[in-house]
Amino acid sequence: MSESQRHMNTRKVTTHSLRRMKERGQKITALTAYDHLMATLLDEAGIDLILVGDSAAMTVQGRHTTVSVTMEQMLYHASTVTSAVDRALVVGDMPFMSYHVNPDEALKNAGRMIQEALVEAVKLEGGVKVSETVRRIVDAGIPVMGHLGLTPQSILQFGTYQVRAKEQAEADELKRDALALQEAGVFGIVVEKIPATLATEISKSVDVPIIGIGAGPGCDGQILVSHDMLGLYTKFHPRFVRRYANLAEEMKVAFGRYAADVRSRDFPSEDESY
Questions:
Q1: Taking the domains of the chain in order of start, what are their residue ranges?
Q2: Is 3-243 a domain of CATH 3.90.1150.10?
Q3: What digits encode the pLDDT tens for the residues 92-101?
Q4: E-assigned strands of 60-143?
Q5: Which DSSP string do the residues of 62-127 spell out, in sequence order?
Q6: Of these residues, 3, 120, 173, 192, which one is catalytic?
Q7: Is position 192 annotated as part of the catalytic site?
Q8: Model-level pTM?
Q9: Please, what is the Cα angle at 7 between 118 and 39, to 5 degrees?
């Protein structure tokens, strides 16, 4: 490893450095974590941004949507992640109904994520409709990341996980939303499950990094749910997920071997006993 590579792998990632990466054309890497061990591995692997996602509802709690995650649960997950991370920028999802009532309550909850869980930024779903709330939080000194396209907290309203903004009217609305979020002061925006050409257009039209998930290669970076790309979460396999491992099967084989060894009295051996 060269000295420059070693420096890149150890230098702390900030909202400013993400903007610099976009300016240099350097792709941003992002994945999710909900616990200390996963966060440690992601940080050691050099991932730039770790999102403590409300997807914990599905990957950890076994729910069908993200809307059931509470503020207290997100604080718990986020605190275990931040205790493990040295380099990556840690962003905490603001859960459903934690920022929807009014900007003051949203600021209070965002402040809890910063003070109690020690995340370095928060993420909110929505565009023009939440821009006032975003501005209120940013004005208080808390970095905010936006989220457009398929917004999982609105899934009960959408009624489907299909691609968003395929029609021109919704595409135009999404572009307005991105500009509104930039104007409100976000440091970056996640765009989820939208046409690749639209995501590329948005990335070129705003100064802040656009992080895609199911939005094609034209974004400034990519994010996936770690449990998806590791093959741990197998209830469904979205088209945009590339599985880099099949850990669910490997783990089941390991568990089965352990059970067989215990039942056959092969484990523990004399060398594994005191």
A1: 3-243, 247-274
A2: no
A3: 999 999 999 9
A4: 89-93, 121-123
A5: --SSSTT--HHHHHHHHHHHHTT-SSSEEEEEPPTTSSSS-HHHHHHHHHHHHHTS--SEEE--BS
A6: 192
A7: yes
A8: 0.93
A9: 35
